[in-house]
Amino acid sequence: QMADPFLYNTGDRSHYGCLGHEVQIEYLKAYVCRPSIFTDKAVIVVHDVFGWRFPDIRYIVDLIAGHGYTAICPDFFKGTEPWKSTDHWGDFADWMKDHDPMKVDKEADVVLKYLKEQCGAKKIGIVGFSWGGMAVHHLMLKNPQLTAGVSLYGIIRDSEERYNLLNPTFFIFGEKDHTISLDQIFLLEEKLKQYCKVSYKIKVYPGQVHGFAQLKPEDMKPDDKPYIEEARKDMIDWIKMFV
């Protein structure tokens, strides 16, 4: 049994009562949470393989909204089934062919249009987790409308076209992520130094595994809690600095 590269132990997740609501945007469903006061700043949250309904990701949307941003998590899987922890790992490669994190441009544009026209957003950032971290890395190379990005443990694919970021991007990794080696992280850093002309940051959190930063407080282990909280604070600080 090969170690599951994307998935982390989803264990028993506590129920989460969401603060936001679901909307339909053209052909996409999305979960939106707005802060109590009007803002012209927004953040798109890109879910992981478990999809836009996963409680952890909704918790993150609400958390970001609590910092004064319109936060939105669209269904980047466009109504198709997300990966489930009961699915067979042998089918994962086939599932990924139909759920390519590099093919998110059209959905991103639909959501950007909605945020600008319906929510009055003038500055828009993006954060993404795992599958979503890969999507953020891709979009920060392609879409100049996104003023800042945070990619959390997105698998790194090495190629020359992956380093010329358009706007400030922060890469968050766990030291003990069995899907992303420290060598890959060092290579990313080296290449960004060489090619990247905007602000970027790479940070590795000690002892942390894949998926660590999206746990809800009641699902955290005490030893991990300080690192999870630090990663979230760092994520928000990056957004506040540039969005």
From TrEMBL:
Where would you find this protein in the cell?
Cytoplasm, Cytosol
* Limits of the Dienelactone hydrolase domain: 29-241
Q: Name one GO molecular function term.
A: hydrolase activity
Q: Which GO terms describe its cellular component?
A: cytosol
A Pfam family assignment: DLH
Q: Which family does it belong to?
A: Belongs to the dienelactone hydrolase family.
Name the UniProt record assigns to this protein: Carboxymethylenebutenolidase homolog
The organism of origin for this protein: Cephalopterus ornatus (Amazonian umbrellabird)
Classification of source organism? Eukaryota, Metazoa, Chordata, Craniata, Vertebrata
Gene coding for it? Cmbl_1
